[in-house]
């Protein structure tokens, strides 16, 4: 078995491969979070965490529950004669007879095409995220990237107002959403890298958990507002042409801009890392390759954690990506029940994430992640084996699952911040995003294979479970060096 623990760091800086020593890989740079007792102003901490709140509606409302799911990949973008086949609600597209209709084939095509747009977004993130993060480290421009990408994200959400309910506008909506996903990820890379600026070794888990928790709660509030507007039928507004969904996108854009202002104003820019000279864009890829080799050689725990986390984070993504499908198809939830279920899960995840941040600081991020993954695996098996008991089982399992997902995500961020060499936060968090994208095929693949092999949607639960188990096993082999274990508990 390959040793996934880090060797003791060298006494001197190591060469980068071009004859220049890189201080980021020196002994002094190994402890990612400076072991000081500095006090970070609460205003900075809260303003940093509020960025998660500001951008979460893009993910929860536009990408996951409402705009893409209920509008873009729906009969709104089918030809009128095809859409009319499903107008009476008799076609559920869950039987072989229904699937043979033009209506169900049309929905399948929209889903496939949207998947290709998402795949293209993933490729862009794969290529851009680590290099842009690296350049932000060298230039001391992480905040500038967050601010710029956040503004662009808001503009893209505004642009969705022009995605009219017409087949001719489908690709417009899909491409704008995909570009929004890329922009959000680039902003998130630099935002995550700033975690060490607004926390200390004693508070990094709590601060990370606060950000994730506020994000979940912000998503809940945004979803509740959508439910209220739907319940009151938009107060008599004519919502033809998809106007309701297009106004939701505008609302998300305004939300992003307004709640990101505290971050823009109160969180300072960190200076560039001393001794690392900026290089050109394409030369950055050469430096990236050398950095990955040096990371494996000198900070092996960081390298292997990136791999392990990429696997189990894909399992975490699968829990939310396919949870709604399971609720509707396998457990017979109505559309309203699915939305209520999503709100409940986000609420539980938000609260548990904030509370788990203290456990992170007390027992260490690795312990929290291992516990959370274990709970997730048991919960998935519980839902699978007791599925015939109906909706109550899915509610119970879903609540427990959501209580574990948030802490696993937040503690992954804080653990990575702890094992990242100083001055490489942007680049490493770029790799964090990239490795997650590289492995993002696992949950969809095993989900689809299990359903294809056994012929029922609920078998997909076991596909996601396999991904979570694999990620947990890989994480168990990641061993932190002694100095990093100590810093994780300070």
For this entry, give a set of tags.
about 70% helix; disordered C terminus; mainly alpha; about 500 residues; two-stranded antiparallel ribbon; disordered N terminus
Can you put this structure into words, describing what you see?
This protein is mainly alpha-helical and 490 residues long. The chain has helices at 42-65, 67-72, 80-83, 96-99, 102-139, 142-159, 170-193, 204-231, 243-266, 281-298, 300-330, 335-363, 365-385, 391-419, 425-438, 442-454, 460-476, 482-488, and strands spanning 14-15, 21-22. The chain has a two-stranded antiparallel sheet. The two termini are 31 Å apart.
Please specify the SSE layout and strand pairing.
Blueprint: E1 14-15, E2 21-22, H1 42-65, H2 67-72, H3 80-83, H4 96-99, H5 102-139, H6 142-159, H7 170-193, H8 204-231, H9 243-266, H10 281-298, H11 300-330, H12 335-363, H13 365-385, H14 391-419, H15 425-438, H16 442-454, H17 460-476, H18 482-488
Antiparallel strand pairs: 1-2
Helix pairs in contact: 1-7, 1-8, 1-9, 5-7, 5-10, 5-15, 6-7, 6-9, 7-15, 8-12, 8-14, 10-11, 11-14, 11-15, 11-17, 12-13, 12-14, 13-14, 13-17, 16-17
Briefly say what this structure is:
With 490 residues, this protein is mainly alpha-helical.
Order of helices and strands: EEHHHHHHHHHHHHHHHHHH
Rg (C-alpha, Å)? 23 Å
Q: What share of the residues does DSSP label as strand, in percent?
A: under 5%
In percent, how helical is the residue content? over 70%
**Low-confidence runs of at least 5 consecutive residues:** 1-35, 483-488
> N- to C-terminal separation?
31 Å
Average pLDDT confidence is 78
Oligomeric state, counting identical vs distinct chains: single chain
Shape: globular
Instruction: Give the count of helical stretches.
Output: 18
Strand order of the largest sheet: 1-2
Largest sheet: 2 strands, antiparallel
* Total beta strands: 2
User: Helices and strands: which structural class?
Assistant: mainly alpha
